[in-house]
Amino acid sequence: MKTDLTIALDAMGGDFGPGTVIPGAELAAIRHPNFKFLLFGDRAKITPLLDKYPRLKARAEIRHSDVSIGMDEKPSQALRHGRGKSCMWQAIDAVRNGEADAAVSAGNTGALMAMSRFILKTLPGISRPAIAAIWPTLRGESIVLDVGATIGADAAQLVEFAIMGEAMARCLFGLTKPTVGLLNIGVEEVKGIEQVKEAAKFLREMNLPMEYFGFVEGDDIGKGTVDVVVTEGFTGNIALKTAEGTAKQVATYLKLVLNRTLISKLGAVLARGAFQALRDRMDPRKHNGGVFTGLNGIVVKSHGGTDALGFATAIDVAIELVRNGLVAKIAEDIAEMNAVMNPDVQVAV
Amino acid sequence: MKTDLTIALDAMGGDFGPGTVIPGAELAAIRHPNFKFLLFGDRAKITPLLDKYPRLKARAEIRHSDVSIGMDEKPSQALRHGRGKSCMWQAIDAVRNGEADAAVSAGNTGALMAMSRFILKTLPGISRPAIAAIWPTLRGESIVLDVGATIGADAAQLVEFAIMGEAMARCLFGLTKPTVGLLNIGVEEVKGIEQVKEAAKFLREMNLPMEYFGFVEGDDIGKGTVDVVVTEGFTGNIALKTAEGTAKQVATYLKLVLNRTLISKLGAVLARGAFQALRDRMDPRKHNGGVFTGLNGIVVKSHGGTDALGFATAIDVAIELVRNGLVAKIAEDIAEMNAVMNPDVQVAV
User: What integer pLDDT is reported at residue A1 of this predicted model?
Assistant: First the structure.
């Protein structure tokens, strides 16, 4: 095992490119003194910024590339245009060739997933990667996957997601037996979509080393009923964005009502500390980082519109997963699943 | 047209049965002096309650039934056991035989939908009914459908949902040209699930008398980007419950942070009026009522756990839809759709 761990950063990704990535990496460099950084992107743009952050500079290396992927490029287009030479490609390729232990990008999600899949390939026994979100809940945080890597999933793929999410919860939350639930529209066994019911049967009957809880509903996510919520990418993405929208909506209502009278404005001033604490708790920058799971390597996607603090959170997530050996954990679990699997309980796909 | 309008109530439905339904109906009776009420259920339980509400009593009639549907009965079981003789069945049947203009129940959703579909039948040209939710947004309210009548929908069914939701928005919000969006995981034309893309093509290309906006994402629901959000029942149900869960989560955070220090508690006392206004705005009782659309008659489902105020809101929704002729509007729109439909743009189903 290497003593110096390295994170590859797509310095040009996101709405603000190096303007966010470099100060974000500086924050991460301060927090993680034994990590190095490879900065992929336009040297002319990165250098003047890097000069401002001597701590990062001492542990970073620029890898020049003058091709970057546009936020609106289609994945197929990005693969053609960015293959080999784009900074996004090169950051992922550094994970493949062992120069880096993980890659982080705030760039185009579809392109990043397409390239990651192409370069790193899925783990043996995994049919498709997933994007896992870290979701703040009343009990702490949960993992929700897939939040949009692909649309639809059959029972076997949902089981794979369960295994990947469970391994991730062990890595990120330090849990030994995270609980896993299948997202459904009712908790009774007879309810729901066919694939979800089949996956439930599979998780119940197979003796996987996993704490399978059962079905959960949409409101269970925020409650933190389980540590890992499994769903296919279309529903997961809509649930994630609906929750983001609702949180913003309530925050907007709160601002409106507090500004209505002088006395409530005064109350708001007194409760300023509380509102700051609320903002902190709901701060999307503190829950930033969609993890691409199921690949031969770790890739973390940061929100494109985040700032340095948010980008640093995405790097933190990558570092935590590297430290705890996510890829190896998933590979072991999949191997174990294949070992316990016998023809009698094989899922029809 | 009848001058006296009548609402049929399933008096035994919901977690509290007549204990909620009767005081809820009293509130509705006060607000709507030209409406009558048929109360289906156990006379022995309804009578003593009704005696407390003379205004309702003067305009209500009890229709005795000693069979009621359990909250956990499967739809097929409820249909067998409750056919003809249960109060839920009889309330819906009163709509079919013209005694009532709409039915409201806080009972078992699956049973209510199965019976409604069996008794009232779908409108000509409608393949399946949908449950439409009234969703509070930053711009007021929007209609979201389907939130769980059935799982999955093909392109033609999504178009039907669009038509039904649009007619409902005209009835409930008094809009002449409500905007309609299709829920998707991106706003670009190429993104999303096949059926959703096909429905989009259909809505764009057909010259329907409807303001089709395009794709919307999960966070657009709370923003109120469009008046009607169309999706299939699995995703719609999960979005609805996820939003409910998130709103509760933020409210819980808010309580926690306000109680942390004496000074923030004092601030909270001063801003009491504001918090009351926030609670009012977020009060689920004020947005209660899932509308069963696409049937030959109006059936509104109240939350099972609501109180009298919430049940009265569900009755309000039913009354508004009766007054504005929802069923006729949907039937006209579907007929119009069939008229403009030509083989070139016919949706592959």
Answer: 43
ipTM of the complex: 0.89
Mutation target to probe the A interface, by most A beta carbons within 10 A, among B146, B242, B276, B278 is B242
For the CA atoms of A11, A90, A131, A345, the dihedral, rounded to the nearest 10 degrees, stands at -160
- Judging by beta carbons within 10 Å of its beta carbon (0-12, 13-18, 19+), is residue B244 exposed, middle or buried? middle
pLDDT in tens, A3-19: 579 999 999 999 999 99
Rounded distance, CA B310 to CA B304, Å? 10
Query: Rounded to the nearest 5°, which phi and psi values hold at B86?
Result: -80, 155
A222 contact residues in B (CB cutoff 8 A): 242, 245-246, 248-249
Contact (CB, 8 A) for A169 and A133:
no
pLDDT recorded at residue A284: 82
Gap between the Cα atoms of B142 and B138, Å rounded = 10
Cβ distance B277 to A260 less than 8 Å, yes or no, reads yes
B340 contacts B125 by C-beta, under 8 angstroms: no
pLDDT, position A223? 95
Q: Kindly give, in sequence order, each residue whose CB lies less than 8 Å from that of residue A43, ignoring residues fewer than 6 positions away.
A: A62, A64
Domain B126-289+325-349 belongs in CATH node 3.40.718.10: yes
Q: Where are the domains of chain A?
A: 1-120, 123-349
Given a contact cutoff of 8 angstroms between Cβ atoms, the answer to whether A141 and A173 are in contact is: yes
- Round to whole Å and give the CA distance between A48 and B274: 48
d(CA A208, CA A341): 9
Dump strand ranges (E) for chain A.
5-10, 35-41, 60-64, 102-105, 130-137, 140-145, 179-183, 211-216, 228-230, 290-293, 298-301
d(CA A243, CA A256): 20
pLDDT mean over A280-292? 88
- Give the residue from chain A lying closest to B148, CA to CA: A185
- Topology alike, domains B1-120 and B126-289+325-349: yes
Cβ atoms of residues B177 and B211 within 8 Å: yes
Q: Are A196 and A229 in contact (CB under 8 A)?
A: no
| pLDDT on residue B182 | 97
Q: Give the global pTM.
A: 0.91
Phi, psi of A11 (to 5 degrees): -70, -15
A1-120, CATH topology level: Isopropylmalate Dehydrogenase (3.40.718)
Residue of A nearest to B267 (CA): A267
Instruction: State the nearest Cα–Cα gap between B108 and chain A, in angstroms.
Output: 12
Q: Give the pLDDT confidence score for residue A273 in this predicted structure.
A: 85
Contact assessment for residue B330 and residue B167, using Cβ atoms and an 8 Å cutoff: yes
CATH of A123-349, one of 3.40.718.10, 3.30.70.920, 3.30.70.360, 3.40.50.1970: 3.40.718.10
Interval B222-253: pLDDT, tens: 999 999 999 999 999 999 999 999 999 998 98
**Of A285-289, B94-98, B152-156, B215-219, the least confident:** A285-289
Which residue of B lies nearest to A72 if distances are taken between CA atoms?
Answer: B188
**Chain A residues inside the 8 Å CB shell of B220:** 245
